Amino acid sequence: xxxxxxxxxxxxxxxxxxxxxxxxxxxxxxxxxxxxxxxxxxxxxxxxxxxxxxxxxxxxxxxxxxxxxxxxxxxxxxxxxxxxxxx
Length: 87
Description:
The chain has 87 residues and is α+β, with helices and mostly antiparallel strands. It contains three helices and three strands; from the N terminus they run αββαβα.
């Protein structure tokens, strides 16, 4: 399976990276929309000849890097806790 080797600050923003049977990444889901630079970095790390634009986010709000760093632990924990409560 391919590995993107994302920087830690970007890896924190990703909820899920889907991988298909061809070891391609058909969908990348982040907590909040990624910036253009972040998307470009991911596409570069994918090192694929195919064009890629399957970025999705759970929340539609755009937040600053400062807001993300301040609240990411709380956001991630709360989302995971609520997801487990669905069962």
